[in-house]
Write a structure and sequence with these properties.
Layout: E1 4-9, E2 12-17, E3 21-25, E4 35-37, E5 40-45, E6 50-52, E7 62-71, E8 75-81, E9 86-92, E10 95-104
Antiparallel strand pairs: 1-2, 1-5, 3-10, 4-7, 5-6, 7-10, 8-9
């Protein structure tokens, strides 16, 4: 059975395996091609059994390599009150990192 981990980064949880490519929120100081350690490991399946953290698994870490830094598609928030002349339009593009999982230990 393939080893996997459940990690938390950017307020979201991801189930990852070796060589998975995922999009996570921008991490401080991460550059393309640089190895990084991803967030908190909440659960770890290493072949011998499932280890669940309380809240994190001690000594477990997930290493990844930054593949690309990019921005998500624009999300538009539009508010309007009919017949009152009120409308507001705000756009937002989230900064993201595409990372490839290098190892789970």
């Amino acid at each position: 059975m393939e080893a996997y981990a459940v990690i938390e980064t950017g307020g979201k949880q991801y189930r990852v395996q070796k060589d998975d490519v995922i999009d996570v929120e921008l991490l401080e100081g991460a550059e393309v091609g640089q190895p990084i350690e991803l967030g908190r490991v909440l659960a770890l399946q290493d072949g011998s059994g499932l280890k669940i953290g309380a809240p994190v698994v001690e000594g477990a870490k997930v290493m990844a390599e930054v593949v690309e830094a990019f921005r998500a598609p624009k999300v538009v928030a539009f508010k309007k009150k009919r017949r009152k002349g009120y409308h507001r339009k705000v756009g937002h593009r989230q900064e993201l990192l595409r990372v490839k999982i290098a190892s789970i230990a």
